[in-house]
Amino acid sequence: MSRNFLVVDPEEDFEVLRGLASTIRVRILKLLHVHGPMNGNDIAEKLDLPQSTVSTNIQILEEAGLIRTETQKARKGNQKICHSTFDEVLVMFKEDIPKQRSNGIEVSMPLGLYTSCEVSAPCGLCSSEGIIGLLDVPDTFLDPDRMKTGLIWFTRGFVEYQFPNNAKLAQNRIESMEFSMELSSEVPGTSADWPSDITLSVNGTEIGTWMSPGDFGDKRGVYTPDWWKLKGSQYGKLKSWRVTHDGSFVDGVKISPISLVDLELENHHSIRLRIAVKADAKHPGGINIFGKGFGNYDQDIVLRLETER
């Protein structure tokens, strides 16, 4: 699914900045982004605001180009339907900013392209079109249709992916390595309070564990298909696992002393990523991994390497 971006020059695009300079208008934009097109009455009800306040702020957002409206017939007359215009707004100055001489290498790995797995039930795979194979049957994880996977879940065990070490191929020194993915715990049904210890390993070395707080099902994921039952897992948290010369981090918080030196990536032609819920985990609450077509982020597992020329 494509995403729409708006790049704003703060020296010129005053109407856009005015549109964003209000807590109420930001709440309206967020509501439309998450729930899709809505009319003014529904927006007022959802945000618990007076209709007059919503109407005034919708007009400002429309003038700024941050939303578009269309008139549709209703039971009594016509109604104005509001649509969010952009998924992301970037504020940038036109002048070029000098950049350090570094290379960025990015590889997106589809969820179903794991090279090794060992999982226990409850478990399953599904694509944006439907369930793959049989639910709660670990052997389904070998089904060729797994290549279409958009959501993986299991209780214990692991899936492992093999990324090419493109930095080694280019003979560049790695300065940092980052994995980005959307994760949650896994419980029959859903529960926001269901902790689970999710451990990542690279080339057989554990880089650390992050505790997922729960399995989220309070609302449909932004990209979760309509056929997926609402009482099932809907979305996760987008987590960034980063390894540098100073250690390993999740979202900037240090989780272990394992560094790039310990991983010796320059000696490996591939980067093997294992995502696991270990049998001896303190909080063995299962795992959901969300890929394209599911959750709140339209992405698979992304590897980013920053290298020195």
Q: Roughly how many Å is the radius of gyration?
A: 22 Å
Number of strands: 20
Low-confidence stretches: 96-101
Helical content, roughly?
A: 10-25%
**Mean pLDDT level:** 90
The amount of beta strand, in percent, is: 35-45%
Distance between the termini: 34 Å
Corresponding CATH architecture of the largest domain? Sandwich
What is the string of helix and strand elements? EHHEHHEEEEEEEEEHEEEEEEHEEE
- Name the shape in a single word: globular
Largest sheet: 10 strands, antiparallel
**Helix and strand composition category:** alpha+beta
**CATH topology heading of the largest domain:** Jelly Rolls
**Whole-number count of domains:** 2
The number of distinct helices, counting runs of at least 4 residues, comes to: 6
The level-1 CATH class of the largest domain: Mainly Beta
CATH homology-level superfamily of the largest domain: Galactose-binding domain-like
